[in-house]
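Fold this complex.
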Amino acid sequence: MSNSDTAPEILRTVDGQPLKEALTRASRSARIRAFLLVLPLLVFVLLTFVVPIGQMLSRSVVDEKFSENMLQLGAWFAENDSLIPDEAAYAALVADLKVASAQRSAGNVGTRINYELPGTRSMFTSAARRADEMAPPFKEAMLAQDPKWARPDLWAAMRSASAAATLNFYQAALDRQIGADGTFEAAPENVQIYVKLFIRTFVLSVVITGLCLLLGFPIAHLLATLPLRYASLLMILVLLPFWTSLLVRTTSWMVLLQGQGVINDLLVWAGIVGDDGRLEMMYNQTGTIIAMTHILLPFMILPLYSVMKTIPPSYARAARSLGATSWTTFRRIYLPQTVSGIGAGGILCFILAVGYYITPALVGGADGTLISNQIAFHMQKSLNWSLAAALAAMLLASVLVLYWAYDRMVGIDNMKLG
Amino acid sequence: MKKLLILSTALGALSLPAVAQEVNVMGWGGAYSISQVEAYHKPFTAKTGVKVVSIDADNPATPIKAQVDAGNVTFDVASVEFADAVRFCDEGLLEIIDPAILTPAPDGTAAMDDFLPGTVTECFVATDVFATVIAFDATKYAGMESPSTMADFFDLTKFPGKRGARKNAKVLLEMALVGDGVPTSEVYATLRTEEGVERAFAKLDAIKSEIIWWEAGAQPPQLLADGEVAMTVAYNGRIFNANVTEGKEFEIIWDGQVYDVEGWVVPKGAPNLQNAMDFISFSTGTEPLAKAAEWISYGPPRASSAPLVGMYQDGKTEMGPNLPTSPANLTNALFSDLEFWADRDTDLNERFNAWLLK
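Structure:
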């Protein structure tokens, strides 16, 4: 407590500056130096991670392929609410197609509408090729070329595409499409795919994480309690596959599991199954689960090990000496102390599993593929990047929700990664 | 440290203008890229002194879209499938290629009359014809009747066993219809109707339980070699390669083959535009196209090239009968309809994926 009677004397450094100022200056320069040291990493992360991912995600809500090329039609949509196009609308459409034809952008326009209504892309490209020859009345001219131009759902799709910002890709990612009357409705049963795949992805990820925990827990315990000599050997056995290329491990599983593979050959040789009764362990969900569990196992073992290493064995001994059975000791003394490791390993395995792509693509067959394979399909094959971005954003959001739930239930501070 | 930084920056800046005479060509890797390097790249450099840098991609169409969208194009020529070329051309992602740069045939036939009809467009010049076919291991059918038609692929009672198929609706739906007895000339007209699509899926349903799906072109020869499948959908070039380089005895069923063309495009904003055009003009000449077909069993798209194709590099395998363009192989063949697939690729594949889940 300072003495309130006397005015506080200002402390000064040797060269007469107030101490407080000198201290602030010194600490500020230290802060700047520290900031400069992390600056390269910050710039690196911003440029290579935050900006590209942000750009990619923004594609899920913005698509300008139609809106920036169809200006006159956009203006007509802005002025008219009606779903039934009049002559002015067709005139605007033809005028825009003329420009699009000259600028070679008709394909862009058609592609955008084709996302909503499959099979319409060529209507735009062929109409654009002939737009220059068209004469009023434009409605008749367009309908003469293709009567499908009068479809209300086509005009609804064009109206919704005339704004660059759109939620249509999220609708598509939820298996919804523009119906005949122009409003969104659930897609027919035989084309619904994404919701099913999301559910399958999460169920499989939970199963794989659970298997990793079941298999990894005893190994981590052994690692933490064995004499150093054996523990190091065991550790190498855990780490060796961890350091091996993902593709090598996946293809090794293919060699082991396939119909004419090592395991089936052994079973047939031993007479356990007949030659025509070979087990199907590959190109289905079983293959995905086995290969992914093996690949993700170290991500469970290592955090568990680092936590178990810190648990003093005296606690368990004390419990036993106080009369607890070995099961009670495990359940009430040992297990609660490993929760932070289980949480860390579980979250690592789960998040990695949710985004896994190569392994399910190679061993998953038809029913073992995950949502990430569908994202890759739209990135690389169909080139509908907006839909890929919408699917990826939904995957990211659901992982964040789970992370938040974990934080509420277990507490993220409790997590120990090593 | 600071000096070093300045020095290296200055050097980096200096090294940029030094790369003047080159052309960057993006291909698909593997044996296909080797054929292009041997037949096009090396002779082009020998003739003009322009260095050709060969870059590999899983599918060069993806980087074209990414780089043109981002306004930072790093390559000049790319090898893409026809359907992607047409789509990108409509979307303004490609440079226009003036057909006047194409060289006439040795006998003076104009280039446009020499190429197969429709294989040169304003943005695209074909380099080769490849086919998706059915293949099987001849050693597995030794002494018994072996499959010979597309219908056999879908016939599990006559030819039991697993089937390999590419996990994509394209080509597979056409094959299903041909296997169901639709004449090749009517396949796309049938597929344009809802009943036709249902008919194709129904045909696939018949063998669905026995199908092992593959995604990479290298997988089907492996599946055949492992005995995992009795028959598989495959690219003819991969089957040919397994036969000549690994001594396999795989046989190709040319009946119902679906052939497609690949060729050069120039992404919009290519850094070495003039070199790119020179390269395309040179490599699509009669002789380079014929030479490429001696490295991989993809047929040349120019009529004048066909008689020039000689032996495979091993010096004993005649290339002619192994090319999709050989007349005997074209008797019941289907040219992949790019307009149809540009329109329906996404929705039919979504339906296909949903069908897989059922």
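The two ends of chain A are 44 Å apart (CA to CA).
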